[in-house]
Amino acid sequence: MINLSEVIETNAMIEKENLDVRTITLGISLLDCISDDVETLCGRIYSKIAKTAENLVRTGEEIEREYAIPVVNKRISVTPIGIVGAAACRTPDDFVRIAKALDRAASDVGVNFLGGYSALCAKGMTEAERMLISSIPEALSVTERICSSVALGSTRTGINMDAVALMGKIIRETAERTADRDSIGCAKLVVFCNAPDDNPFMAGAFHGVTEADAVINVGVSGPGVIKHALEGVRGKDFEILSETVKRTAFKITRLGQLVAKEASKRLGIPFGIVDLSLAPTPAVGDSISDILELMGLERTGAPGTTAALALLNDQVKKGGLMASSYVGGLSGSFIPVSEDQGMINAVNAGALSIEKLEAMTCICSVGLDMIAIPGDTEASTISGIIADEMAIGMINQKTTAVRLIPVIGKGVGESATFGGLLGYAPIMKVSKFSCRDFIGRGGRIPAPVHSFKN
Amino acid sequence: MGKSIITVVGKDQVGIIARVCTFLAESNVNILDISQTIVDGYFNMMMICDTSCTDKAFIALSDGLEELGRKIGCIIKLQREEIFESMQRI
User: E strands of A93-155, at which residues?
Assistant: First the structure.
């Protein structure tokens, strides 16, 4: 039987160490909504989301009450709209109409974000996907809850450099459209290499075409819990350090598994996966950077940072895989700058650069995340940063992503404020050297060899 | 059987257990186990209960206990047992 100390430990994780379920994300297939008429399509999309997700928020709240565990976000992901809208949309404006219908549905069922305003162009772009991509700046500026993602490459297909070049321009344009709010539109736009079909986290969530009609995916948070556990093993060797992270990750993930199964049962929708990612928040102590510093780094970004993060990421997976029957999504440590107070402090102290962040993304999900850069950064430079990150994902057979925010009208030394979970971000220095001619070449970077790994 | 865990945390005083037990008896909730300790000077009590016979909805029961807690100056929490089982047991 459960004993008092176990109850106290679990409740301390929730009450003092910011343990929570970060998101219950309901994936909904919109393939059966397809029509060649935009009006009909929008109507069907609205009805399907409204019907499938009608109990999502209430169920999340019930679970929250009955287990006394915060379920911070209830969200929806849908089939990439680049596919769903292909038959109906003749212009980018037609796609914006779909975005507005999605936004209305998200608002009416009470979710804070809906992901899937997406195009999968790892190898090539259809005309519809090109239109969707060019509609992104408008769609993100006229909607509140829509998140957009674009897949630009994969280990199997290589990197679609035409799409990479285009996304550099789209990210700039999205920033300009929301310049009055520190370019917040870009916080809802992410590009991927090896994009997962079952990611519950925004802004990159979409419901892949290989998925069932509806599915429940859950993401758990827990940097604060790991940090607290590591406070008890200061100065101990790497075996004890690893073991402590692994044990703690097991407990965190079991919570995710429980909530996912319970939500699935109550909603009558199959359980998909638990995403093992450690997701920080701006709350004090709920930080990946704090964990790395507790391991013995003066500041995140110091030599040793990549090794410390590799250990953390791997042990979280080892503990997590034991705890859940189905693991998926991104499953890595998130290292966003804006959402993690420790990372912000490291940037402000001059310890952490974009280049070091890039090295860190080689060994963990999910890429260069929520990084504010100067507003005058050229589109081709943004594309160059994206191409580097896509290459890391392609060669290492892992998911990588880029969510950059060129903050229009601001430069290095200033900061951008987004509010809420998105926090604020100091603007980071970007290399002044150009890659315009490289990006301007056009075409694709071929898929890498899958043997000769040395 | 629907097992639930009640935790009571607060300054130690006369009658805490009596008040909580009376509330549970009136709600037809059977107490299976009680343990208590003092952590950082605060009274910590845990009860394992069977909530399957009560005619109150789980959330209503939880609200009732929280309100009782406010009256007696403690924080009372009702949680389904599975959260502890899943996190603390393989």
Answer: 114-120, 146-154
Question: Does a structural domain hold residue A124?
Answer: yes
Instruction: Write down the pLDDT at residue A450.
Output: 82
Residues of B engaging A, defined by a Cβ cutoff of 8 Å: 5, 7, 33, 35-37, 39, 44, 46, 48, 58-59, 62, 77-88, 90
- The helix (run of H) or strand (run of E) holding residue A108 is helix A92-109
Number of domains in chain A: 2
Confidence of residue A403 (pLDDT cuts 50, 70, 90): very high
| Percent of chain A predicted with pLDDT > 90 | 87
A61 and chain B: CB distance < 8 Å anywhere? no
Q: What is the distance in angstroms between the Cα of B44 and the nearest Cα belonging to chain A?
A: 8
Kind and range of the H or E run holding B46: strand B42-50
- State whether B83 and A68 contact (CB < 8 Å): yes
Give the lowest-confidence range in A110-114, A285-289, B74-78. Answer: A285-289
To the question of pTM greater than 0.90 for the whole model, the response is yes
CATH fit for domain B3-88, picks 3.30.70.260, 2.60.120.10, 1.10.340.30, 3.30.70.3040? 3.30.70.260
A vs B: CB pairs below 8 A: 63
> What does each C-alpha distance from B82 to A170, B79, B88 come to in angstroms?
47, 9, 10
Does B33 sit within 8 Å of A67, measured CB to CB?
no
A168 and A249 fall within a common domain: no
Whether the CB-CB separation of B3 and B51 falls below 8 Å is answered with yes
Instruction: Tell me the CA distances in angstroms from A99 to A20, A57, A94, A173, one per residue in order.
Output: 30, 21, 9, 17
Q: What is the Cα A187 distance to its own chain's centre? A: 10
Position B1 pLDDT exceeds 70: no
Average per-residue pLDDT in chain A?
94
Determine the 3-state secondary structure of A295 from DSSP. Answer: coil
The nearest alpha carbon in chain A to B7 belongs to A7
- The separation between the first and the last C-alpha atoms of chain B, rounded to the nearest angstrom, is 21
Residues A77 and A180 in one domain: yes
Q: Model confidence over A406-416: pLDDT tens digits?
A: 999 999 999 99
Q: Using 50, 70 and 90 to split pLDDT, how confident is the model at A286?
A: confident
Residue A422: is its pLDDT beyond 90? no
CA distance to partner chain B, nearest, from residue A265 (Å)? 14
- A324 at B interface, C-beta within 8 A: no
Interface test with B, best of A58, A66, A251 (most B CBs within 10 A): A66
Judge whether A85 lies within some domain.
yes
Which position has the higher pLDDT, A389 or A276? A389
Domain span at residue A381 reads: 219-441
Ranges of each domain in chain B: 3-88
